[in-house]
Please model this.
Amino acid sequence: MYAAQHLLERSDLAVEIDLYERLPTPWGLVRAGVAPDHPEKKLVIDRQFSFALQDSRLRYLGNVEIGRDVRPAELAEWYDAAIYATGAASDTRMGIPGEELPGCWAAREFVSFYNGHPDFADLKIDLQSERAIVVGNGNVALDVARILTMPVAELERTDISDQALAALRDSRVREVVLLGRRGHLQGAFANPELEELEHIPGVEVTAEGEDLPDDDDVMLDGADWTTRRKLDTLKRLVRRPSSNPRKRIIFRFLSSPVEIVGNGRVEQLLVARNRLERDAGGRLFAAATEEQEVLQAGLVLRAIGYRGDPFPGLPFDTRRGVIANLGGRIADDGKVWPGAYVTGWIKRGCRGIIGSNKRCAAETVAALLEDRAVGRLRAPEIGRDSVLAILRDRQPELVRLDGWRRIDHAERSAGRELGRPRRKLTRTGELLACAAAEQGLHQESSR
Ligand SMILES: NC(=O)c1ccc[n+]([C@@H]2O[C@H](COP(=O)([O-])OP(=O)(O)OC[C@H]3O[C@@H](n4cnc5c(N)ncnc54)[C@H](OP(=O)(O)O)[C@@H]3O)[C@@H](O)[C@H]2O)c1
Model:
């Protein structure tokens, strides 16, 4: 959407854009990744994107999967240029014994579940144990810890999926342990996300594994303002008086997962205590000591990073988990593919907040326009009407703008009755039926 926006903003260009999406619904992580208790973020972006989608130069083509319904080689023939912004559908694994046991999930799966992504909406995530362990100290780890500990009454006012609400109402999780392989000063979480933990009613936050230093501690020498603010928040959090807390979040620093143990399902996590060492470049890394401990837990969520999957028909950089590219131009072994571009997490790896993608898309669009200016783009071999005819033939349940609007309207209306921003439709069949309702299926829409 940011790439499309950058192109649409260029009033000197006679640009026309087709926006392909595998799901019936648009917006990617804004819909399926941003936590439900962050409605203000979604609202702002939703408004911006909805405005762009109204532009008559942009056609929405939902429920079409590139690689299945259309090949990248065909896109190269149908358009001057194709920009791939397919994100990260996979995640980094811990690589420890027992990771396959039921009860061990990727945080990505849990996030997609509670956000009602159709591929994950009916996951059976068991929340019946007292303790859950989240491996990782990034923003995703904090998101899932918050959702696991927030009062359900608060979640009932959000757009969290009905299935997740039901599971959380029934949850017996009382303690969430956040396992950080390095120390508190190296936490990958951002300050606003950490500070939010102060506002979860009835939740006590503690820190284990290392002592939080005083401000004049030698480790703070050279620490930047952001790191100092994190430390201040952590100290404030752990010093808060708490009487009879409803739930607890425990930061356990300098701790790495070693093995998941259980008879047919997750029962325990063996954890190694680490110490910090410096590599040749001066970066602090976690080195395991001999000291180990067993933590009882029925749920382990790994939140140690997302990863992009290889994309059929495009060169892939396996090491980085991205479509191989040079500054946004798709490139195989350093050789640029004319007219093929990439943006977002599948271009640069899974780092950065949503706004980072705006800058990332600007770089890609600049590369595209530069290539156009020097005549590197090939004119399309067929017109837009022919493209639409082919798509309708291959995917009779193509979702157009009016279909998405019907879904959006239905979800908002259903939500309004319950005091929620929207009540999401979470199954592909329901979404397609809603998109096709009334005139949708049979009456041709001009857009
Ligand atoms: N609210 C928001 O704005 C928001 C919400 C969610 C996500 N995001 C963004 O989305 C991106 C991805 O977030 P993320 O949380 O998935 O990733 P992340 O920020 O890269 O954090 C990954 C965490 O996992 C740890 N880790 C990595 N490999 C490990 C291993 N083998 N064993 C134990 N720990 C390991 C890392 O520790 P080390 O530091 O030691 O490597 C780090 O603490 C980030 O840029 C994040 O800021 C933003």
User: Anything to note?
Assistant: Confidence is low (pLDDT under 50) at residues 439-447.
